[in-house]
Every structure is written in structure tokens, then in C-alpha cells.
């Protein structure tokens, strides 16, 4: 799988400096993939502390996702 490979610029600026540009661009694509991701932008903005803690883990892929995203199935 690849992230958002489009050449289009993202219209919504990233809300926090710790989010990489490429990650923010990928997230913008993800919110359009399915209903379970539709509120991810708002959830991230409303729960910065939890998302930042998860982001800072050495292996975040092995940790429980913030907010209610732990209910998602493995891809």
C-alpha cells in the first residue's frame, strides 16, 4: 500500500507541528476511504494529547490506537 500519492496540495493546514507533512496528506486521503475514518480530522484536533502520546511510542503499531479507533479491525 502507498499513502496519498496525488500531486494535489492539501487545502486544510495541519493542526500540529509534530505531524509530518506526508502523514497529514495521507490522513486527508484516509478520511475519504470509509465512514469509520470520516471524523479522524476532528478526533485528532480534539484529542491531541492522546494522539501525540501514541505517535511518540517507539512502535506505535504495537500500541492501542487513541480514542475509539482501537475498534477497527486489522487491515
In words, what does this structure look like?
With 75 residues, the protein is mainly alpha-helical. The chain has a domain at 21-71. Helix content is 35%, strand content 0%. It has helices spanning 21-30, 40-46, 48-56. The N and C termini lie close together (11 Å). The model has no long low-confidence stretch (mean pLDDT 84).
Structure in a nutshell:
The protein is mostly helical. The protein contains three helices and no strands. Helix content is 35%, strand content 0%.
List the helices and strands and how they pair.
Layout: H1 21-30, H2 40-46, H3 48-56
Task: Name a few traits of the molecule.
single chain; 75 residues; mainly alpha; 35% helix; globular
Give the biggest sheet.
none
Radius of gyration: 12 Å
Shape assignment: globular
Number of continuous helical runs: 3
Average pLDDT, all residues: 84
H/E topology pattern: HHH
- Enumerate the spans where pLDDT stays under 50 for 5 or more consecutive residues: none
Q: Structural class, from secondary structure content? A: mainly alpha
Strand residue percentage: under 5%
**Quaternary structure state of the chains depicted:** single chain
Tally of DSSP β-strands = 0
Report the span from N to C terminus: 11 Å
Q: Which percent range fits the helix content?
A: 25-40%
